[in-house]
C-alpha cells in the first residue's frame, strides 16, 4: 500500500524550488541506472533511507509502516513489486539489482532519480501535487504510469464514493423529513383537544406569553429526546465504518449541525402552528 504523497522519476533530481510549493516534510532520492534489461540501484541508499510501505493490520483500515531495505527489496516479492510500481512501464519488467557505490559509479550510463515525497497536508496541496505528477508523466512520455500515485488513488476512491455519499445524504434527508413530519403532525393532531384546556387557562387569568413559553418547553421535550437518541445512535453506528475508512467521524460535526438546523426549523414551525391553533380565541 502506497505510503508516499508523491513520487517522481526523472533523469535529473527534482529541484527544491518545485517541491517547496507543497511544503514537504520529508524528501528521499534514490538514484538508479538502466542497462540492457537490468536496473541497478545503489544498495547503501536504502540503508540510509529505507523505502517505506504501508501494510494493513489484520484486514482493518489501520496500517503499519514497513521499512524496506535493499535486502528485503531483493528477496521479498511484495517489496520488489512495490519498488517496481514506482518505475515507468517499460522498466517495471526489468530485473532489479542492488550494487555497492563503487560498482554503481563505474556503470557507463547516466543515472535516473526516484524522488519520494511526504507532505504535511495532502488535501491542501493535492492540485499542485497532481500538476507535478502530470509534468513527470509528460517527461517520461507515459500517462498515469504510476498507479501508486496517491493523487490517483484519492481520485479513484473519491469518484467511487461520490455516488454513495449522494445516496446516503439523500436517504438521510428523506428519513429526517419523514421523522420530523410524523412528529409534527402527531403534535398538531392533538391541538383541537388541547385548545379547550388553554381557553380555560386564559379565562382564569393565565398570560399569553406564559402559555407560549409552556408550549415551547412541552414541544421542545418531545423534539429533544428523539434527536438526542438519534445522534448517539449514529455516533456509535459510525464505528462500524472503521473497517472502510481511516476516520469515519470526518466532518461529523458539520453533518450534525445541518441536522440540528433542519430539526430546529421543524421545531419552530411546529411550535408556531400549535400556538396558533390552541391560543386562538373562539
TrEMBL record:
Keyword field contains Transmembrane helix = yes
- Keywords (A to Z) from UniProt: Membrane, Transmembrane, Transmembrane helix
Q: Which domain of life is it from?
A: Bacteria
Chain segments annotated as transmembrane: 166-193, 214-236, 248-274
Q: Does the keyword Magnesium apply?
A: no
User: What PANTHER family does the entry give?
Assistant: ABC TRANSPORTER PERMEASE, ABC TRANSPORTER PERMEASE-RELATED-RELATED
The protein's name:
ABC transporter permease
Organism of provenance:
Bombilactobacillus bombi
